Amino acid sequence: MKWITRERPKIDRIACPWLIARFIDPQAEIIYVPAPEVISRAAALQAIPFDVPDVEYTHCGDECTFDYFLRKHALEDPALQQLAVIVRAADTDRFGLAPQAAGLWAISAGLSHNHTNDHEMLEIGRKVYDALYSWARYQQEEKHTWQYKK
To answer: Which residues form the ChrB C-terminal domain (predicted)?
Structure first.
């Protein structure tokens, strides 16, 4: 299936393709185009548009597109639900929702600055989301408590 969204991805437009490929559509093709072209190119390419206004897969109220994907596809994994709070907080500039959100935003903004190729950025971003998911699923109880002893 083809999925299409705005170019120059940051939080939601990296998190959603990661979620799609990992949990919804492993053969997904992600297409990035200039924002004004998303709807017309979606029709021409028979692609599903996401994270743009007036489409099914988009922000709803205080939630972001990642939240909608989880609800639409009944993804109830607690680690994904926790990741959704982090993504929502970073994507909507409400860092108080999750302590990880400001760091996720900083990483995303830095990746965007360092990489102009959207698909290259997506590949790097997928590793970031793999790591966040693994932390949420397996490692969040682990604390960094290294202490130097003489």
So the answer is: 3-135
